[in-house]
Amino acid sequence: MTLPYIHLSLAERREIARMHAAKIPISVIADRLQRHRSTIYREIKRNWVHDEEPLYRGYFHVAADMQARARRQRLGKLSRKPVLAVYVMDRLKAGWSPEQIAGRLRASGAPERLSHETIYRFVYSSQGQKLGLYQDLPMARRRRRVRYQRKPRGLFIPASNTIEQRPPEIAARTSFGHWEGDLMMFRKELGKHNLTSLTERQSRYTILTRNRDRNSTGVMTGMIEKLKVLPETARLSITFDRGTEFAYYPLLKQRLGMDSYFCKPQAPWQKGTVENTNGRVRRFLARDADIATLPEEALLEICDRLNGTPRKCLGYRTPKEVLMSSLDPGLPELCNPDQLRPGSP
Question: What is the pTM of this model?
Fold first, then answer.
């Protein structure tokens, strides 16, 4: 029968510190304390004090006992390190996801490391629930919700414009200048105003533009006004779903030379980049937001936050940084991302 393990006491740790300082072999220390030598090895290794000053470097029984007690409290890392917890909460308030926070810490070479799971556990702990931290998560919900398919939409798409005809380098994101577009709707009681969201597939750079209604001519015209400031190499194609608001897509070819492609029916996931972007925008603009009265500066701030937030898929660079590195440096004024902001001339 295996005997239960008994933690080392402060008195035993005092003896370990005294004998270790006297350079007595670990096997001898273990025999005198009636402990396995692996217990002694593990105790010294786990509770060794690493300090720049040699005088304060080593194994000290009081410090070792305090460290051992702290580990047995079963508190999460962020509960034990309030300075790190404040940093995490600040980044959550800024709109960063737990994965972005953890990734940025690794990429910046910070001494403290976190996993996104550690942040999620902290958010949903009793301490995090009292602070309401779940409200700062990307989806701001307590539990997962079932996702439903969208209703089919009627729009005739020529065979040459279906997503099967889209060049493979677009799906692979190996070339720059390929966009995805979608319409974000809000409550009908507040009017017909809506937003067009545009996302470049490689850089994830996002543009938002406001529409008075779902009229296809107006939607396409607003889209063209935002994209025309880019060089031709930065506006090669765009992918839509089959909503009737995109029926006037030939205008993009006429004005900008952009090819248009359309997802299969009931398959919005085929333009997943902009769908993901819409979810991020919903963190700042819920469905009950009154788009008609929303100041242009508020829309501008949302774009800046999205394009200034590091992304894991970009190696924790920001979409704006990737966009600027992909544009022709010989066209500084034409390629200024500020010209893509809502309300810019």
Answer: 0.59
